[in-house]
Every structure is written in structure tokens, then in C-alpha cells.
Amino acid sequence: MSYIALIASASIVVQIVMLILVLASVLSWYFIFERAKVMGRFRNASDHFEERFWSGMDLTQLFRQVNAAPDPDSGTEAVFRAGFKEFTRARQQPDMDPDTTMTSIQRAMRVAVNKEEDKLDKHLTFLATVGSITPYIGLFGTVWGIMGAFRGLAMTSQATLATVAPGIAEALIATAMGLFAAIPAVIAYNKFSNTATNLISLYDTFAEEFSSILHRQVYALSRKNQARREAGADGRNESAQSAGTEAQRV
């Protein structure tokens, strides 16, 4: 008997199980191709931005360029935009506290990394679910089919292999379909999880390196502001002393 004939002659419960497994397999393959394409774009976009970042370009100019045309696939660019935007907002304040500013910058970059992590983990839960439950769904269909085969066997007067074999064969197809759906999903989930972990590590490393750069700029800017305030205070004191001296002469 052909596989199509075995599926057509299966009970309605086994056919429903097979339909569920086919749908799960089709969706998992769709997400496998979609995630492979997305992960590749994310890796290439992040590598391209890091080349621009470490090329020696002025950070303010780079921020203007990426802010005007942001790349949604570049996680490192998103981290850079979040951190530099917070730095730009903080340096406009004359009484900027460097420790508070660095805390705000690091928090903004951490939020950006978390958002990128959500993008990378999209649909991976579905692949993990397919890989873990489809063998059991297929096993359920097999058990149900074998139960039906033995019930039919009990109603016959003479049991032969030709009598019971078709029922067992159509039941075992459910297990085969469950494994066919589960194995690619598990392999893809492990592959994409490892890729996502590597990309998140790349984003975290970039955030730490960029944080060190901004740390130096924040404290240098804080020292300049402090020097300006002290110079202004000295100027006011000298003006007050001059005015006092002039008053005494009068």
C-alpha cells in the first residue's frame, strides 16, 4: 500500500494528528529560513557599523549620519545611538554630574541591547516548542492507531500479519511525521540560539568599549565645566574687589 493510501485509511484522530504535524513542520521551515536570513542581515549590518565606528570618524558626525538614516538590522548602531543620545542630552547641562551621566548612558545602552535581544529571540520559542512536543504528538497518533488496529483485529476470526500490518503501518506514519517535524526544528533552534548569544555578546562588548570612550569624554567635559565655573567665580571676585577699591578711593 502507498503512503497516501495508508494516510487516507487512517482514523480521523490519526489524520488530525498528521495534519497538525504537517502544519507545524511547514511553519517551522518557514521560520527557519526567515531566521537564517535575519541573523545574516544582523551580523553583516553590525560588522559594517563597527568598521565605520572604528575608522576614526568624529562621533558627532557619525551620530548625525546614523540618526538621519538608522539601520534597523544593526544592533551595535542601536546601542551607539542610545548611548550617544544620552551623552548629548547630558552635556547640554552645565552642572552635569559625571557619575550620574555615566549611569544614565549605560542604562540607555542596556535597554537598547535588551531590545535587540528580543529581535534575535523572535520565533525561537516556536521552534523550541515544535522540537519538543511534535514527537509526543506523533507518538499519540501512533498509539491511537495501534489501539484501533488491535480493536479491528479482535473482531476478526483469524488474525494474520496481512490483517494487522496496514493498521500498524498507518499508525507509525504519525511517529515518522513527528520526528520529521522535530529534528530540523531542534537543529535550527540550537543554531540560532548560539548565533543570537554571539550577537548579544558582540553588542555587550561594543557597549563596554563605547562606555569607556564616553567615560573619558564625560569626565573631561566635567573638568572643563568646573574650570569655567571657577574662572567665572574668580572674575566675579576680582570685579567685586575692584569695585570695593574704587569705592574706598571715592
TrEMBL record:
Origin species? Natronospirillum operosum
**Membrane-spanning residues:** 6-33, 124-147, 167-189
Limits of the MotA/TolQ/ExbB proton channel domain: 77-203
InterPro entries tied to this protein: ExbB/TolQ_transport, MotA_ExbB_proton_chnl, Tol-Pal_TolQ
Composition bias of kind Polar residues appears in 238-250
Region (Disordered) residue spans: 229-250
Q: Does the keyword Transmembrane apply?
A: yes
The protein's name in its UniProt record: Tol-Pal system protein TolQ
Report membrane topology: Multi-pass membrane protein
**Localization of this protein:** Cell inner membrane; Cell membrane
Please list the GO biological process terms of this entry. Answer: bacteriocin transport; cell division; protein import
